[in-house]
Amino acid sequence: MNYRSPVTGRPLVADTSHSLAAPGERWPVVDGIPYLRTDSEGLVAVALDHLDAGCPDDALVALLTDQDAWWTGPATDLGELKQLVCERDTLTLRAAMGLLRMGPVADYFAHRWSDPTYLAGLALVEAHWCKPGTGFELACGIGHYLRELTARGVACVGADVVFSKCWLAKYWVAPAAEYVVFDAAALWPVETQKFDFVACHDAFYFLPDQPRIAGLLREAIAPGGVLAVSHLHNAAVSGGAMGPARSSSEWAALFPDAVVYDERELRRALLTTDAPAATAWFDDPEIEAWSIVETDRVEANGGAARALTGGLAMPAADAVLQPNPLLDCGTPRWPSDRYRSEYGAAATWMSDTGDAARNRRILDLPARW
Predict the structure, then answer these.
(1) For residue 203, which of 131, 151, 142, 250 has the smallest C-alpha distance?
(2) Beta carbons of 75 and 103 less than 8 angstroms apart
(3) In degrees rounded to 5, what are phi and psi of residue 305?
(4) Pairing mode, strands 25-30 and 19-22
(5) Residue closest to 294 by CA, chosen among 361, 232, 340
(6) What does the pLDDT look like over 304-352, one tens digit per residue?
(7) Domain 113-313 superfamily per CATH
(8) Which end of the chain is more exposed for a tag (fewer CB within 10 A), N or C?
(9) How crowded is the C-beta side of 152, counted as CA atoms within 13 Å?
């Protein structure tokens, strides 16, 4: 990948094996991940000092202290971060997240493989699969979708604003992808790149300046490519949305040419091997969230969704499947009351009927889950 400055837009070139530079600026590259977050100048300077001194692990510890701007949980502990860096080749993903003090976020990441929001996102992508050669995911988290894409030969770039998430993705979840850290509110280091598949899953709703970001996502699509954005919260949902939300008309203004799905329909189609039926934007209080795709492709089936008989929506052919850890002898074992409240009613693995891999009673977990 060729990156540009998130400050000036000028091309960044490697001035050392551990840094990228343009006139008047310099950025660290730690464990192969460029750190281009514009609101963290102090952390950039600290990381560069450690790297220039020949202390890459100290630079890594420094960047692992980084957090989302909205984070209100406990601060990281330097002793625990040093332990994490020292033992990174043997720790499980869950232990690593524990040492990062990710709290409830760790529950979501550890069990996302079967959560209904994630499955709806997989169904969305599979329904409009374009056999991409390249892919880009904004707000990629720890790489759940990137793992599925790279397992099917897609050369992917994942971007997030928090270094530790990209680092966890690289070490534990999707090592075949490339990663870059930057703030979506700044200039995009990948702005001149084009990708066959562009996505933002379960994250777009909390991003700033959404009209601008929607435009940048569209601009990143190569001719014939696909944009997928999943889990757009409905402001009209009964009981209140589980995060920042918009009305159907507001989402329609942002994505006027999109194919729109109710996430319940995506999960239904996954379980029944059907093609999901698109819907229109309207304020139905029963719809928790919508997912959309945009594409300019001319498809053999007239652009309609494909049946979810396999592909990305199902574990890869060589996957080693294990019992869902949320099931204890058939009884749900929820990681928290909030997790149960948010996902329990729509959890597909609660049913003991149907294909166990399709409803996620058995899972393809990372080797060091």
Answers:
(1) 142
(2) no
(3) -65, 150
(4) antiparallel
(5) 232
(6) 799 999 999 999 888 999 999 999 988 999 999 999 999 999 999 998 8
(7) Vaccinia Virus protein VP39 (3.40.50.150)
(8) N
(9) 21
Alpha-carbon span 348 to 253, nearest angstrom: 32
The CA distance from 28 to 59, in Å, is: 9
Tokens found for residue 236: 């009209």
Local structure of 316: helix, strand or coil:
coil
Using alpha carbons, select from 213, 351, 233, 217 the residue that is nearest to residue 290.
233
Domain boundaries, the chain: 28-110, 113-313, 322-363
Backbone angles phi, psi at 183, to 5 degrees: -95, 125
Element (H, E) at 33: strand 33-34
- Under a CB-based contact definition with an 8 Å cutoff, are residues 357 and 314 in contact? yes
Give the list of residues 6+ apart from residue 127 with CB closer than 8 angstroms, or none: 261, 266, 269, 275, 276, 293, 305, 306, 308
pLDDT in tens, 17-28: 999 999 999 999
3-state secondary structure of 346: helix
Distance CA 167, CA 249 (A): 37
Torsion 304-251-186-45 (CA) sign: negative
For strand 134-138 and strand 25-30, is the pairing parallel, antiparallel, or unpaired?
unpaired
Q: Which two tokens stand for residue 343?
A: 């996902």
- Whose structure tokens read 């999960």? 267
Band the pLDDT of 134: cuts 50, 70, 90.
Answer: very high
The answer to whether the beta carbons of residues 181 and 29 sit under 8 Å apart is no
- Indicate the length of the chain as a whole number: 369
Q: Give the SS3 label for residue 85.
A: helix
Triad 272, 263, 245: Cα angle to 5°: 175
From the number of C-beta atoms within 10 Å of its C-beta (0-12, 13-18, 19+), residue 10 rates as: middle
